[in-house]
Sequence to fold (321 residues):
Amino acid sequence: MINIVDEAKKLQDEIVSWRRDLHQIPEIGLELPKTAAYVTERLDEMGIEYKANVKLLFQPAEEGPGGAKPMIEEGALEDPKVDAALGLHIGGIFEEVGTGQVGYSGGNIMACLDSFRIKVKGSGCHGAMPDTGVDPIAIAAQVVTALQTIVSREMKPTNPAVVTIGTIHGGSAYNIIPNSVDIEGTVRALDQDTREKIASSIESIVAGITKGMHGDYEYEYTFGYPPVSNDPEFTEGFLDTVRKVIDEEDMIEIKDPTMGGEDMAYYLEEVPGTFFFLGGFNKEKGIVYPHHHPKFMVDEDVFWKGTALMAQGALDWLAKQ
Fold:
């Protein structure tokens, strides 16, 4: 009988070297068919027999506009029909999940990923004569401050939410009051009601401040990725797989979700499944920089665990059907 863990360990060096090669290829999309063929060939070489189909999804643009949604719309979960989904994230999002450990949750584990844009409109004039115009920078400053009260004063304290201003741009010279200021930000929440309430509150605040200060505004809110919610039953079954690959003490239940978002949520809205986390930071090796940091890296020595968990997880689920 094939041992998935042993096979994954054998592939460790090949997996790492290939990952480095792919990162050096600008047209990475051209390599995806080769990747899928490689994986299926390796499974065939192991002599694994299937009771059904295993579909390997390689998706573009996970950070935006979101690879999962357009792929589902184009039929990625059909022909053959997909009945369950298993996803993996490696890194250090959850501090409690150490190097090579597995973090799991049978419910909400990640927030939605929404965005908004605001244009604060004033009337430009000379900086020395502010009374002859309407200063959108002064208005925007009030807007940014007031938006922070949505979470602190409108949300239930036990219901997590985030409103973050990521960019603010206005003006072209030190002595000129501009016509407008552009603001962009993100909203994170764990349920639809909270998302809609925040979206409405942002516009109410912007409208009130801009009108009160003799300006105007444009507002656009984009409902992006929904929250990631794992199926409890599927997750419980997957834990039996995890025990085959790592020690019980390295299985970490995630009690508090992260406010980060993931397009895996779209798959989990369609079929039962789970999205789990493999700890990839390693303080001893200096691999400690957070996601999206220019020095971000993961410990490549744990890659085999991800490979084993995904392969064993698929086989175990099929065996139960």
